[in-house]
Structure formats: structure tokens, C-alpha cells
Amino acid sequence: MKIILNTNYKLMREAAFVKENRNKWQQIDSQTKDKDIPAETLADNFIELTDDLSYARTFYPKSQTVRYLNQLAGRYFINIYQYRKKENGRFLRFWKTELPLIMYRYRKNMLYAFLFMLAGVLLGIFSLQQESDFSSAVLGQGYVNMTLENIENGDPMGVYKDDAKGWMFFGIGSNNIRVAFYAFIFGIFCSVGTVYILFSNGVMLGVFQYFFYQYGLLGESAAVIWLHGTLEISAIIISGGAGMVLGNSILFPGTYKRIDAVQRAVKDAAKIVVGLIPVFIVAAFIESYITRLTDMHIYLKLTIIGLSALFIIWYFIYYPYLINKKTNGDT
């Protein structure tokens, strides 16, 4: 009789132990399927499991609870091992998988950013058509006068021939990264700040190109400017898309709590901007060391522009589509 009572008492204690921890174990079990579980959560969950498993082994040996926790802890151990392997190749994985998947997830934001800049370009062209002094208001009177002087001297692209190549490279690179950072961080103002930067840069680009068109130099100027501009402008547009990711998370949090949506958006948008830093550096190098070679053969110029455009289209548009299709099976 005493043995039966002890057995029933132990079963009651085990049932209470299971009831108290069931929800926690189910949550941990569901997280074993999460490929992007943070390392901190992975470690905390494993500690919880091993503590509960030790308790169950002490008081309820050979029970179903011990077997269940053993299996769950085993799956988590495999997850930790896989996470460690992933971390060893994290740098490569960021460029190969992580950044492309983020780009695909926010592809609509990138399209909207492109359309806002395009609208600015069209407005800049239209405004200069209507008011000849608009170029001075946008580009600055000093820059306009210098360019007109270069045109008269037969060297319209002379502005790119600064002798201090190293300082020019550093200045252009840091300035472009700063513009990208502003386009991203100003998204905190519900995307309005990002839209303003995209639109204003688009107006400047439209005025700049139409200014040369007025002097019959559109083709010559475009072949020089877009040597670096293909990467530079594309990166600014993508940075603007990152800013809109941030802003839209505030306006449209979806099924997430607003604070959770913002934290997720900040993390993804920051990765996009970090991924653009090499693009800005290459663009600054081209502008400092290659764009100055204005007498370069037109076919060589078009080759550089074409390769730059192909890289942007492939890595930031088409490759994300392929990686998403391979990873998630979406089309």
C-alpha cells in the first residue's frame, strides 16, 4: 500500500512539473525549426532544457518526461553545432545569401525609391526648361560658371580632373556614404525624409544632365558622368529603399508590435546600407581615377558603364530572385 501511495505521489509531482513547464518546452520545440534564431536565445533555451532534464532525471528516472527532454535537448545540441558552423562562414554567407534575401524581401521598397528619384529627375528637367536660371539655384552659381568656362575651353568635363586624386577619392567616397546614411536614417521620419533626399538628388541629376543637353553635350557628358554614376546613383536609390523599409515599419507594422517591427526593419535596413559600402568605394575610385580620363575611347567607357549596370541588375535584382526561389521556393 505504501509503495502504491509513493508511486501515485511521484506521478502527481511529475504531472505538476510537466504542467508547469509544458508551454515553455513547446515554445522551445517550435524554435528548433527557426533557422535565424539568435545565438543568445539558442544558449538560454539549451540551459533551460538541461536544467529541466537534470531535474527530471533525478526525480522521475525512466519516465516519458525524461525521454522527451532528452530528444529535445539532442535537437538543440545539433542546432548549436550547426549555428557554430554557420558563424564560421558568416562573412561569405552575408554576401551570398543573407543580403540577397533581404533585397528580395524589400524589392517593392527599392522600386518605390527608384520611382521617387525618377520623379525628381523629370521635375529637374522640366524646371530647367521653364527657367534658365534654375541650374544656378540647384547646382550653385560657382559650379555653373566653372562649367561654362570649361565648355568654352573645350574641356566640359574638366571638373573631374582635380590633381589630388587621393584626397578626391577619400572625399567622394565619404560624401557618398554620408548621403546613403542620410537616405537610410531619415526614414525614421515615416519615410518622408528619405523621399525628400531621393527627390532632391533626382532634381539635381535631372538639372545636371539637361544643363549639358542645352549646350549639345548630353552624349559626351553622359558617357563620362555615368562611368561612376551608374554605381553611385544606384546605391543611393537602394539606400533610399532601405530608408523606406525603416519608415514603413513605423507606418505599417503589420502583424508585429510596432517596436518589434521597427527593430526588425532597422536590422535589415542597416545590413543593406553596409552591403552598399563596397559599391560606393568602387564608384569613388572610378570617379577619382578613371572619370578624369575624358579622352578614353567611347567603347571603353560604354564597357565600364555596361559592366556596372549589369552588376547592379544581377546582384541586387536578379540574384536575390534566384536565391529566394532556391531557399523558399517562391516565384
Automatic annotation (TrEMBL):
Domain of life: Bacteria
Spans through the membrane: 110-128, 179-199, 211-229, 235-256, 268-286, 298-318
Entry keywords, A to Z: Membrane, Transmembrane, Transmembrane helix
Protein name: Stage II sporulation protein M
Organism: Dysgonomonas termitidis
